[in-house]
């Protein structure tokens, strides 16, 4: 079957993105004829691509990106080697309706597309084939889950800041003072570009640096200690960083007060 599919239609390859944020499927009740896919680029830009023939009914499969993301798809190839039925599944365990022919396909040739790596469970791009009848074949690229902002930890004073989303955290610079941490500045790597984040606060006593081998490892946990430390409002008294491969920083500051752990699949920004 794979040889026959490869000999038909036009090939498309969307490539790899930060995430898949939207899916629209068109069908004529018999075949899946059209796909509109909405991706989030690493720059934060939204990119829409379309494949197939826009005929019949076009319907969105709604999911709450980035908290929810597509993890797998199942499609059925009919006797005429067209994509007859298509189903998506998400990280929240939800399943889309059966796009295309929902009355059953005979003979049925099912194809399951899912990741075989725990660290890359999310669909981040598609490739496949289509012709003047619609979609013929559909495959996927998989990557890490999309980044999402975790809750803030600390006091209510001061000015809010946000470095935005980036691909990798490369270097963390920490400034210390008598009453806690006084400065944080992060260097990021987006593709081949080094992005130096803004310096937040100022160095008063000393400065430390935590380097992350971002090409083979990444930050997954930040331990945050907060305390008043002689102040009326709370501040961050200490930080400690941990990576996926077990690299642990020293304790920056004085570990006093409440400890909170910010943990995710991959930390790719600071705020």
From TrEMBL:
Annotated InterPro entries = Jacalin-like_lectin_dom, Jacalin-like_lectin_dom_sf
- Keywords noted in UniProt: Lectin
- UniProt entry tagged with the keyword Transmembrane: no
Gene3D superfamilies recorded = Jacalin-like lectin domain
Q: Which GO terms describe its molecular function?
A: carbohydrate binding
Cited SUPFAM superfamilies: Mannose-binding lectins
Q: Report domain Jacalin-type lectin positions.
A: 1-144, 147-271
Protein origin, superkingdom? Eukaryota
- Family listed: Belongs to the jacalin lectin family.
> Which protein is depicted?
Jacalin-type lectin domain-containing protein
**Source species of the chain:** Brassica oleracea
Instruction: Provide the organism lineage as a comma list.
Output: Eukaryota, Viridiplantae, Streptophyta, Embryophyta, Tracheophyta
